[in-house]
User: What shape does this take?
Amino acid sequence: MKQNKAYKVRLYPTTVQEELLNKTFGATRYIWNIVLSYRNDLYAYNKSSYSKNDSIKAITEIKQIEGYEWLKEVETTPLQQSLVDQDIAYKNYFRNIKKGKKTSIRFKSKHNAQSYRTINAHGTSIRIEGNKLRIPKLEFVKFRYRKSIPDTEIIKSVTISKTLTGKYFASILVEYEHDIKPPVKLDISKIFAADMSCKDFMVSEQMEFENQKFYRRNQRRLAIKQRQLSSKKKGSHNRLKQKHRLARHYENTTNQRRGFQRNLVHLLTQKFDGFCFEDLNIEGMKLFNSGISKTVTSDFSWNEFISYLEWKCKDKGKHFTKISRWFPSSKMCSECGTIKDELLLSERTFKCDCGFEIDRDINAARNIFNAGIEQFKENGIRIYNSTGVNLTNPTIEYMESHACGVMSVGYELSPGIIQPIINQK
Assistant: This one.
């Protein structure tokens, strides 16, 4: 079965290549804005639409206009792909309006991160030779990646991006054969279930975790940099330098969080074969309780972690299931199955009428575990309890360091416990 995945590599272009990259960013941004403006005016005038093919043909006409010859200096494919994306965005815009959702299509700004996509035409225009990536118009650009990309994987497209800190990256989309199939039976000791927790990141009976608070830990420093930016004169060189400093701060925080997530997902998929989580409505939770917004989005980014874990399970042949968000995991007693009518957020200990008492989050994790097993059974997966397996084995130590930004992360596995160890440099 053929599947797609992407490798993100750091590019190191020369001065000439960097100049051409910036021209391409500007050209794709300009084409996007001018066509979007025409689409909006056309719809406002007579409610008519502008097709994708017509907008792509317009690129040739624009290039012939006096004063726009600079568009010929860049590759045409990124300009076309920009309008393909715009056509999809326009269709989603009207689809969301019909559903009653608030939506909009924004014009692109040169002050934000820049990107463009190019296609591997005929399978030869984009290729890798050693530590260099061939990109149309740019020829060979040096890149760095800690792994080697297999020659058996076919390159479909490349997305070039530039961050606010001035770094260039390439996301190489490849197509490959995926023959790994998930097992038809699961050992119950190899199934992992957890409940999201703002205090502890997530709570599970099998392991202990800790919220690293990557964002809140540096929030005071961030506030200082933002105040310094607000005091700089708009359009000045000092303001531009301060914006870069602020962008580097956000980038370091993101790298720390993602490095923690990647290492944790790697360790979980090594130790377990099945995963059960709740399909949480994070946006709804943020509206219900504004105090957790920074925690679930900036500190550990729950949706990003779950999305990456789900993809990794699919890639490694592991089982992953989501429990319905309407499942009463917190209100249900994991011992007798009784569902409480009301459970306040301040009640951190779950007390049932049957006399059973347990930590609220551990009770939810148990219910998610049981519901996940039932879903696995419904999908035709056999659950068994292997003989001779003891979850309280002698201490197993597994240490791994991973440099990511200004952070190196390690983990120590002990009897059913995983404790993140953060070493700040």
Notes: Confidence is low (pLDDT under 50) at residues 388-425. The two ends are 44 Å apart (CA to CA). The CA atoms of residues 401 and 409 lie 5 Å apart.
